[in-house]
Design goal:
It is a single chain. With 573 residues, this protein is of the alpha+beta class. The chain contains 15 helices and 33 strands. Strands 3, 7, 8, 9, 10, 11, 12, 23 and 26 form a 9-stranded mixed beta sheet that branches. Helix 1 crosses helix 11 and helix 2 crosses helix 6. It is globular. The chain binds adenosine-5'-triphosphate (ATP) and magnesium ion. Adenosine-5'-triphosphate (ATP) binds next to strand 8, strand 23, strand 26 and helix 11.
Length: 573
């Protein structure tokens, strides 16, 4: 590709609305352009990277025995009615009617479509197991699309679905995919971590998320300092430091206008851990939909929303409004567990705790000396508290919990029969009986990966693509206006094309400074500089994006560059 013909509009300034570095650089370097909220064009450079990511994903999925197919983006409502998700799936599902009034949606995921396909073709256990995947555009009407490709509404996903005759076979494929994902993310040159994940509202058993470690990540992930335990904070198991309350009689204290835990604690001159925090929530979705519940954790802890949602049987929870709070028998800022007329969920670490201070369910008062087992009946204990740095690991009970931020780039699930049963994915088993297929599903955020790579691979000058992902691996940069330099550049360019390298020749009439800056911004791993001086000295400069520098005579410069690329591949992928 000649740079003079390349459609690659770069921006000098950082776009104001781009908060994270990947979004800024992908816009500035001309990889993507925004069409509308959460929807992007991939320009030629962006598409090259996307294809490079897809190539690695496909190679590893194929190697793992999965087969590629392609399903449609438009899905009929009947499928979703059959699975039971038409009403359950929230506003992320974009529903619409065609000219005949027929309802459809844009696929946010493809369990329904694949189940329908397989249910019609599957007859016998002899056809199983199978793993089918696609690389395809998804649409989710996300409430807060942001960070460019990181959280889009239309985005590219690799989604795979496996079908099995029994749970053991599913477990084996789950392991196969777990290992495949490790190979994929390693080949992409990423620092990542596989963590135990919440299964969402769909249930099922095993589930792991794969997170790229980055400060800008939206997820908090916990890991143990001593063992291999790692989990999303949404389900992390950990034990808090132990506290010793002093048992006392129940009493009441005036705490005028003191509502926040820290304010009450400093007013009473006690630690926040002596307080009981009570929050009133409303369940959204699931069996508990609409139910009001109270959740109690220690004053120094926070309620983990997803843990609470799972404990009460909801998809999610939201904080109650003032009216709902009053209906539950309390008032804003002074909620406590005694005398509420809604179910109370207590964090399991508080069982048998004594001497706590809690809200009195009336303005300006707290109660003291709360002894949980003495003073409260009809409680449900559950793990509700959010894990914290310094907690003891819930798996080995020795190491301490550490935390990092992550970008979720992959998610694998053992689905079991959650979809296969309602969608009637049936087959004749070895005993000749009708049986329901057992399923797994395995997603990778392909377009999100492009952003995640940039989050990890950049410097002040721009993107630093690992060699396998770079839109071009080598840039031949012509300096000055001399015809000799132009002709020598063209020769090198053609030689590299013949060697099947993705090469761009910067033949523009721009200053060397502009050309170097653009090559750095775009993140091209190697650049060969061709100018009169180098030609006269029989020594052309080859520079790497990571600061390395070598020289070679014009007739061996390609050979030299190729061998440098090879060693860079080892280092960056
Ligand atoms: P998240 O919690 O980030 O919304 P999810 O749990 O909804 O993700 P899955 O349904 O497991 O995601 O989808 C599989 C993969 O697709 C995710 O691991 C992620 O990498 C990617 N993905 C999900 N939502 C988006 C989005 N809005 N934009 C870009 N990629 C996404
Ligand atoms: Mg999501």
């Amino acid at each position: 590709m000649r740079y003079s013909k390349l459609f690659s509009p770069t921006l000098r300034d950082t776009p104001a609305d781009a908060e994270v570095v990947s979004h800024q650089l992908l816009l500035r370097a001309g990889f993507i352009r925004r069409v509308t909220s959460g929807v992007y064009d991939y320009l030629p450079l962006g598409l090259r990277v996307l294809r490079n990511i897809e190539k690695i994903v496909r190679e590893e999925m194929n190697r793992a025995g999965a087969q590629e197919l392609l399903m449609p983006m438009v899905q009929p409502s009947e499928f979703w009615q059959k699975s039971g998700r038409w009403d359950k799936y929230g506003p992320e599902l974009l529903r619409f009617k065609d000219r005949h009034g027929h309802e459809s949606c844009l696929g946010p995921t493809h369990e329904e479509v694949i189940c329908d396909l397989v249910s019609r073709e599957l007859k016998s256990y002899k056809q199983l197991p199978m793993n089918l995947y696609q690389v395809q555009n998804k649409f989710r009407d996300e409430i807060r699309p942001r960070f460019g490709l990181m959280r889009g509404r239309e985005f590219v996903m690799k989604d795979a679905y496996s079908f099995h005759a029994n749970a053991e076979c599913l477990a084996a494929e789950y392991k196969n995919m777990f290992e495949t994902y490790h190979r994929i993310f390693n080949r992409l040159g990423l620092k990542f971590r596989a963590v135990e994940a919440d299964n969402g509202s769909i249930g099922g058993s095993a589930s792991h998320e794969f997170h790229v470690l980055a400060e800008s990540g939206e997820d908090l992930i916990t890991h143990c300092s001593a063992c291999d335990y790692a989990a999303n904070v949404e389900k992390a198991l950990s034990t808090p430091a132990s506290y010793q309350g002093i048992d006392a009689e129940l009493g009441e204290l005036e705490t005028p206008k003191k509502t926040a835990v820290n304010d009450v604690a400093s007013f009473l001159n006690v630690e926040a851990s002596t307080l009981l925090k009570t929050l009133i929530y409303v369940a959204v979705g699931g069996e508990a939909d609409g139910q009001v519940v109270a959740a109690c954790v220690r004053g120094s802890d926070n309620v983990q929303d997803i843990k609470l949602a799972r404990a009460i049987g909801a998809d999610e929870v939201v904080l109650a409004s003032k009216e709902e709070l009053e209906a539950a028998g309390t008032v804003t800022g002074y909620a406590g567990p005694i005398g509420l007329n809604c179910p109370v969920f207590m964090d399991a670490s508080l069982q048998n705790e004594v001497g706590l201070i809690a809200g009195a369910n009336k303005y300006n008062y707290h109660i003291t000396g709360l002894n949980i087992s003495r003073d409260l009946s009809e409680l449900t204990y559950a793990d509700l508290r959010e894990a914290k740095v310094g907690d003891t690991c819930g798996k080995c009970n020795q190491g301490s919990i550490e935390m990092s931020r992550g970008i979720e780039v992959g998610h694998i699930f053992e689905l079991g029969t959650v979809y296969a049963k309602p969608m009637e994915v049936l087959f004749q088993n070895e005993q000749g009986k009708r049986d329901v297929a057992t399923m797994g599903c395995y997603g990778i955020g392909v377009s999100r990966l492009m952003a995640a790579v940039v989050e990890q691979c950049n410097d002040d000058y721009g993107i630093m693509w690992p060699v396998n992902l770079a839109p071009f691996q080598i840039s031949v940069i012509t300096l000055g206006k001399s015809e000799t330099a132009f002709a020598a550049s063209e020769k090198i360019y053609n030689e590299l094309l013949d060697a099947d390298v993705d090469v761009v020749w910067d033949d523009r009439k721009e200053s060397p400074g502009v050309k170097f800056k653009d090559a750095e911004l775009i993140g091209i791993p190697l650049r060969i500089v061709v100018g009169d001086r180098g030609l006269d000295n029989n020594a052309l400069e080859i520079k790497t994006r990571w600061g390395g520098k070598e020289e070679a005579a014009p007739d061996v410069v390609c050979e030299k560059a190729l061998s440098m690329l090879e060693s860079l591949k080892q280092e960056t992928n």
